[in-house]
Amino acid sequence: MKAKDSKIFLEALDELEREKGIKKESVLEAVELALLAAYKKNYGEDENVEVVMDRKSGDIKVFAEKKVVESKDLVDPNQEIPLEDALNIKKRIKLGDSIKIEINCEEFRRNAIQNAKQIVIQKVREAEREYIYEKFKEKENDILTGIIRRIDERRNIFIEFFGIELMLTPAEQSQTDLYRVGDRIKVFLVSVEKTNKFPKIIISRRHEGLLRKLFELEIPEISSGMIEIKSLAREAGSRAKVAVYSDIPNLDIVGACVGQKGIRIKNIVNELNGEKIDIVIWKEEIKDFVSAVLSPADVESVEILEDGTAKVLVKPSQLSLAIGKNGQNARLAARLTGMRVDIKVLDSEEEI
């Protein structure tokens, strides 16, 4: 390696350490190990050699470590050196000692800089992957705010967070969202997993976690623990139901969630582009809870069957409200309660 190239190489490592936090020493150690493997591949595995890069000059040297023996005892020239030859290198040496001898291999040293560059590139990629993983892993199951940078022909939305672009796929988009390049947008970070390449990071606008986190952001009583979200169910872009509870006497739970003049719930609805949200008081008695979550319908009775079905009876005038458009109200109620909800019309005889 030429002196100029060596200096540039070391300066580049200094810059990497400053800008990306990649330890210079760890890179140099990796370079030495890789160069050693390259040397053995080209010059033989039998030699007991060491490749050293000078930390100040960047000069690369190869040393062979050999045991000092009598000439007549020499068996393996790759591992041993006669005493008389060793004395020419180091005056104070004796039989049985080990000695490091510099190997003159100019061709290998000339090619070493290219090998070293490849190793550094690999190290940088590994460090960047680790940085991205750690940066997003600490935000898992939380809301991220980013800027839309581009939209491709497949409707994938590329959003920038911390200078890194993540992709919001069509499967994770809400049907009422409008996406424009340059807009700021909130997403829910679903999961972060390590892979052999770029970390697998899933972000979503339709995940129920987004709704839960928006409630925590907008309603201090929830973030402080005064009010608890017991369960929620959501059909993104259309409607959601949120079951809330508090053990604090006389606390207006629904009022706290809605906010003065409806400002809190309005902020959440606006963020979700008009998604309707029903707030339901959680009931410990499952019959009462099922009845409550079918709001705005008035329920006559609820029977819990052994197979986990909630048999619900309503008057004919309430049937469409209980089921909802395309069965949505019943579906959300089932997900919110964890029950199979079977809605029937109360016949005239039962009504009497």
Quick recap:
The protein is an alpha+beta fold. It is built from twelve helices and 15 strands.
Task: Present the secondary structure layout.
Layout: H1 3-20, H2 24-43, E1 49-53, E2 60-69, E3 80-82, H3 83-89, E4 98-103, H4 106-137, E5 143-151, E6 157-161, E7 164-168, E8 184-193, E9 200-204, H5 208-218, H6 220-223, E10 228-235, E11 239-245, H7 253-258, H8 263-271, E12 276-281, H9 286-293, E13 301-304, E14 309-314, H10 319-323, H11 328-337, E15 340-345, H12 348-351
Parallel strand pairs: 2-3, 11-12, 14-15
Antiparallel strand pairs: 1-2, 2-4, 5-6, 5-8, 6-7, 8-9, 10-11, 13-14
Helix pairs in contact: 1-4, 2-4, 5-8, 9-11
Account of the 3D structure:
Mean pLDDT is 88; it is low at 348-352. A five-stranded antiparallel sheet has the order 7-6-5-8-9. Strands 1, 2, 3 and 4 form a four-stranded mixed sheet that branches. The chain is an alpha+beta fold. 38% of the residues lie in helices and 27% in strands. The radius of gyration is 35 Å and the shape is elongated.
What value does the Rg take, in angstroms? 35 Å
The helix content, as a percent range, equals 25-40%
Our count of helices gives 12
- Along the chain, the helix and strand elements come as HHEEEHEHEEEEEHHEEHHEHEEHHEH
Whole-number mean pLDDT: 88
Q: Structural class from helices and strands?
A: alpha+beta
What is the subunit arrangement here?
Answer: single chain
Measure the end-to-end span: 100 Å
Strand order of the largest sheet: 7-6-5-8-9
Beta fraction: 25-35%
Major pleated sheet: 5 strands, antiparallel
Anisotropy-based shape = elongated
